């Protein structure tokens, strides 16, 4: 089983869109996939047609100890399950503040549910923060994918994010790898997108080999801006069902192939130094 955290502490960069369409694309290939929604805004749950507000069967209850993972994950399509969230999940941060082992609640819940046997992939949609929920995702994950929107400030947040990942790798989860940076909301043909992409490559290449990001790779797949991707959530469908011929469907299809074939392309950030 591969457990992938889709993470960036910025909002609006394509985390949810990537989580949903990566999960749905993998499921279409016959992989058994569970998408775990770790954002209290519940966008990925809603994107797949699950409105969990008011239900006790949410990932919040897994953190609170009221439900097992198996009780909350639901089948939404062939091979695709969702562990939905709702606004209650916003309370988890405070509720876990003094809890021993609070970083490992999700990991333990997945182990108790024997998730390894049930799924080929787990995809986790993280909230736009480096909160305890995100740390739980990183502790349960085997890899991280970082969606990035190519604009002027994109690289500023990236080093912070990679440092956090490296810290978690060193202290809490030795098997964690950054499998790639994914350019989302990509404006083909614009000067800005090309410049930022060049800067990103240079930033990665020029990094100290000991730095957390020196080994990170940029996915060849780029997710172009496509209105169909923004429309699909309101129909409760992935891009593959909503607009199969669209550029969004082509781009996420390409990402799915890259994830499946590429496996884990990057050595652990700071693994050697750890
Ligand atoms: P995040 O989860 O990082 O906050 P989202 O995936 O929710 O980001 O994307 C933010 C907004 O941009 C959403 O309205 C989404 O539908 C839209 N969006 C995401 N990716 C694309 C894209 N490639 N083309 C057009 N709209 C997109
Ligand atoms: Mg989101």
TrEMBL record:
<dbReference type="GO" id="GO:0016787">
    <property type="term" value="F:hydrolase activity"/>
</dbReference>
<dbReference type="InterPro" id="IPR050678">
    <property type="entry name" value="DNA_Partitioning_ATPase"/>
</dbReference>
<protein>
    <submittedName>
        <fullName>Soj-like protein</fullName>
        <ecNumber>3.6.-.-</ecNumber>
    </submittedName>
</protein>
<dbReference type="Pfam" id="PF13614">
    <property type="entry name" value="AAA_31"/>
</dbReference>
<feature type="domain" description="AAA">
    <location>
        <begin position="1"/>
        <end position="177"/>
    </location>
</feature>
<dbReference type="InterPro" id="IPR027417">
    <property type="entry name" value="P-loop_NTPase"/>
</dbReference>
<keyword id="KW-0378">Hydrolase</keyword>
<dbReference type="InterPro" id="IPR025669">
    <property type="entry name" value="AAA_dom"/>
</dbReference>
């Amino acid at each position: 089983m591969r457990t992938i955290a889709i993470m960036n502490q910025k909002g609006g960069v394509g985390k949810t869109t990537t989580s949903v369409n990566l999960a749905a694309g993998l499921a279409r290939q016959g992989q058994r996939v569970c998408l775990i929604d770790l954002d209290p805004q519940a966008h990925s749950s809603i994107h797949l047609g699950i409105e969990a507000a008011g239900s006790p069967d949410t990932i919040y209850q897994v953190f609170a100890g009221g439900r097992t993972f198996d009780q909350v994950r639901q089948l939404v399509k062939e091979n695709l399950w969702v562990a939905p969230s709702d606004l209650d999940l916003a309370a988890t941060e405070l509720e876990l503040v003094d809890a021993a082992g609070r970083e490992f609640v999700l990991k333990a819940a997945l182990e108790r549910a024997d998730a390894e046997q049930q799924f080929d992939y787990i995809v986790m949609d993280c909230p736009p923060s480096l909160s305890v929920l995100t740390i739980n995702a990183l502790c349960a994950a085997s890899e991280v994918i970082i969606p990035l929107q190519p604009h002027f400030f994109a690289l500023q947040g990236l080093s912070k994010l990679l440092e956090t990942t490296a810290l978690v790798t060193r202290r809490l989860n030795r098997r964690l790898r950054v499998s790639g940076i994914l350019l989302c909301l990509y404006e083909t043909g614009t000067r800005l997108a090309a410049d930022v992409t060049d800067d990103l490559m240079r930033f990665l290449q020029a990094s100290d080999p000991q730095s957390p990001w020196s080994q990170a790779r940029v996915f060849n797949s780029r997710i172009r801006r496509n209105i169909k991707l923004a429309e699909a959530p309101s129909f409760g469908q992935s891009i593959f069902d909503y607009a199969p011929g669209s550029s969004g469907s082509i781009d996420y299809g390409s990402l799915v192939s890259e994830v499946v074939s590429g496996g884990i392309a990057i050595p652990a950030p700071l693994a050697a130094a750890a």
